[in-house]
Amino acid sequence: MFLTSPRLRAVLLAATSAGLIAAAVPAPEPLGIGDPLFPHLGNPGYDVLAYDIALTYGGDNRKALDALTTIDARTTGRLERVNLDFAHGTVESVTVDGRPADFAGVEEDLVVELGRPVDAGTRISIAVTHTSDPAADAEGGWVRTSDGLAMANQADAAHRVFPCNDHPADKARFTFRVTAPKDLVAVANGHAVDHVVTGSTATWTYRGAHPMATELAQVSIGRSAVVRRTGPHGLPLRDVVPVADRERMEPWLRKTPGHLRWMEDRVGRYPFETYGVLVADATTGFELETQTLSLFERGLFTRTDLPEWYIESIMVHELAHHWFGNSVTPRAWSDLWINEGHATWYEALYAQETGQAPLERRMRDAYAASDQWRAAGGPPAAPHPSAPGDKSGLFRPVVYDGSALVLYALRQEIGAAAFDELQRRWVTEYAHATAGTADFVRLASDTAGRDLTGFLRGWLYGEKTPPMPGHPDWRGKAPSNGKPA
Ligand SMILES: [Zn+2]
């Protein structure tokens, strides 16, 4: 071929490449990173480094907040578009590196066109102007309280609050900037870095010192008192409670330094820059280990039918998650047993030491029920997906006491000294990182000085619970047709 002029050549090239794009670029579609339990959660091709999330709250928790979420990411593959997870808000505009970008909502993904192919290893900044709607809270995300809002994103609801790569395998730094009427108080994960009053509103800025999974984000807005004290080694503690409950909550709040010392004696230094209890006047039916500021229902502390040691053991459960689940985050949601098994383990140990709840009895009872739990929910490290619409369905007995039972079996098998060393090594070697079941098996084997793959396979993946080392007399109840027990 002979081209007669550069101009014609340019025209021909443009025509060719336009044709190629039209033929080669498929319609936007929802993507995921292949989590066995949440196939559309997370997205391939990039790693989020930082989120900067600005939220403007007008004072009515039934109305959508205005928001600007800025995502700094590094591409890990060649990309022409970026899938974010996002639902329950309206997207007004998107920019990429400051330039307006096309976007489309497809199921629970927000697909952003980069405008040009971007090579792996490129830093990109995506800014999404959107709303965030707490009225659609039935599926998690925003929790409406009597005086404002709190957040509960676990497992897959962060993207119902802000656009994100909504999977714990992609941890990132977070900054929250919350603007609200100045007579309210806004608190988020990490330390306060700024507080500016402008007329009738105020803007609070918080930043976390460590990477965080999207499921652990927390923003509390309400008529709150912020209560400060000091924990072990000068750790700043910060509790957030309804103003009217300040005195009533104090007997519970002042227990935290002791809980911290108790956990540190067992697994080592607390891994974050601050800790505290967020008491929300809402009926959630759960407590949640949101990073540096665990969410508790007010009702847990005001009911009178529970012994004190039991309520404290739940406080210890959420605190223990800061080592197991928050600092060391799961690679896939099927690794949830590591989070909940360990949190339940320390909850049960604390209950044994402070209440009339021997660990061995609790584990014997768990052993009796374990086959039924496995039949109903799957084995600890391969749980069945939850039914559509059943958002907390993953949080079932097999990942709590059924998984603490796996740890008990491991301790019986390798001895208390090796088990304690494994606990400390796990939270040290994977601190502020992501780790999964295979990593745990490998570290357990390394710590015990022998291959535990075969031993743990049955405990983690077996349909039937293996015999308990040291307790040959323990028996399980037969599953009842696989129906939940
Ligand atoms: Zn838990």
TrEMBL record:
Belongs to the peptidase M1 family. GO terms for molecular function: aminopeptidase activity. Residues 154-214 form the Aminopeptidase N-like N-terminal domain. The keyword Glycosyltransferase does not apply. The lineage of its organism: Bacteria, Bacillati, Actinomycetota, Actinomycetes, Kitasatosporales. It comes from Streptomyces tamarix. The keyword Metal-binding applies. Residues 466-485 are annotated as: Disordered. It holds the Pfam family Peptidase_M1_N. Keywords: Aminopeptidase, Hydrolase, Metal-binding, Metalloprotease, Protease, Signal, Zinc. It catalyses: Release of an N-terminal amino acid, Xaa-|-Yaa- from a peptide, amide or arylamide. Xaa is preferably Ala, but may be most amino acids including Pro (slow action). When a terminal hydrophobic residue is followed by a prolyl residue, the two may be released as an intact Xaa-Pro dipeptide. This is Aminopeptidase N. Its EC number is 3.4.11.2.
